[in-house]
Amino acid sequence: MRTHRRTVAALAAIGVNAARDLYRTVPSDTVRVAALVEISAAAAALARTVVKLRHLDPDLIAPHVSDRTDLRAVLGRGRWLPTMVRHVPALTAGPVDLPARSVQHRAKRRKAGGQLPLFTEAGDR
Q1: In 27-112, where does DSSP find H-type helix?
Q2: pLDDT at 124 over 60
Q3: DSSP run (H or E) holding 15
């Protein structure tokens, strides 16, 4: 499991470092927090979408994240708590060696005749 966490940390480093740069460079606390909320909301929405579309079990994801409470909160099965204020260490981004993923294409079967085209070419009239 150690290798998987390192891989996840290396992949997350790009986003975490971007958030840290934003935190250090934006002078307004209000704008800074609003931008961080937008980033986290977009990332959480993408994570929920992947879990839903791929029918992933959160228990299989849990060993790869640093805090299981965050996983449940991001996926909408938990709550953000006031105690979730903690230090996020700086991560180093570098080359990530990802395992090859086999791509499976689903065969689409079409009925003979099928649906008529919505738009026709000018010469087809």
Answers
A1: 29-54, 58-61, 68-74
A2: no
A3: helix 2-25
